[in-house]
Design brief:
This protein is mainly alpha-helical. The protein contains six helices and no strands. α4 packs across α6.
Length: 187
């Protein structure tokens, strides 16, 4: 459209060149008006095109932002669920450990264990004379077997056989079993 307008203006200018000074003035005014009008039309078209482009870009950006917000919300929800599951799992572990600890602390020692406390401690967690293993938490049957072997004089761990024989010599099988039961329940 610009080319046609400019060609028309050029043709008009050529035709009016021979017409004199007055014609030249009129032609110049017409040319200026037409050029100004063409520029105005082109400018308005460019503004409209820019408005449309900006509007379309804004709509696309809004859609993309909504998608990103949805994805972020989903990620946050998934992370929150994982954290909640981990907290629940850890709480269950802590609760279980606390229950075991409370159970081992609340188990009452049988009267026959009283003579053991001097070397093994009130809860069986002391190494006797710094030589023996901790007896708390050991298997009940293994404890019964060891105590009976000490009583019979057939066991001597770390040179403690004769001392242990003297300690368990007066214990009945029921007392040995009660002591072993008590020690096996301590964690």
């Amino acid at each position: 459209m610009k080319k046609i307008t400019l060609l028309s203006l050029a043709a008009a200018a050529v035709l009016f060149t021979a017409c004199g000074e007055e014609t030249k003035k009129v032609a110049a005014e017409v040319n200026t008006t037409k050029v100004a009008q063409a520029i105005k039309e082109d400018t308005l078209n460019a503004v409209e095109t820019t408005k449309t482009t900006i509007s379309e870009a804004a709509s696309a950006a809004k859609v993309e932002a909504e998608k990103m917000a949805d994805a972020a919300a989903e990620t946050a929800a998934a992370a929150t669920m994982k954290v909640a599951e981990a907290v629940e799992e850890k709480a269950a572990e802590v609760g279980e450990s606390a229950s075991k600890a409370m159970a081992s602390e609340t188990v009452e020692a049988p009267a026959a264990y009283a003579k053991c406390t001097g070397c093994h401690g009130a809860n069986g967690k002391t190494k006797a004379l710094g030589k023996s293993a901790v007896i708390a938490g050991q298997d009940k049957e293994a404890l019964i077997t060891s105590l009976k072997e000490y009583k019979a004089g057939t066991k001597n761990v770390a040179g403690m056989g004769s001392l242990m024989k003297a300690q368990v010599a007066t214990m009945s099988d029921e007392e040995i079993e009660a002591v072993a039961e008590y020690l096996s329940q301590i964690q």
